[in-house]
Amino acid sequence: MAFELDRVILRTVFPEQRLYGFQVANIKDKIKQVATCSQTGKVNEELRFEMMNRYYHLMDQLKKFGYDRKVHPYFTEYLVNTYGIMKDKMAIEPEDLSMNDPQFLRKMITECMYTDKVKDILIILDCLVYLAKKDGSSIFIQ
């Protein structure tokens, strides 16, 4: 979930950019990098403004679910580095449908995760569910 939320945020801010090496934790640096011409070093202020605007607009939306842009980008990075990501999820099998069920995921989080991390992981889940509904997609992009 942490990795997926990071990717959704990054795809929103950088819709046409390859996201290799991008994390929400370093998003302001990446916005500056993307908006800067590699040949002249000149910053395309209009592009930088568009990306920053998308970022702040999204952060305002996620704030309603408890997302703190000074905490959660680093927390998601910690979760991915500590627990890894789900790999090889080619197609959802019938028994895997629960992986896109927010109630099932909420139950798994509260039952299986360390108590001190549950609150923040539930915030990540709530944000991911909100963005999936907004985009008309599943929680986990295939």
From TrEMBL:
Transmembrane segments: none annotated. Coiled coil: none annotated. It comes from the Eukaryota. Residues 1-141 form the Speriolin C-terminal domain. One of its GO terms (cellular component) is centrosome. This is Speriolin C-terminal domain-containing protein. It comes from Eleutherodactylus coqui.
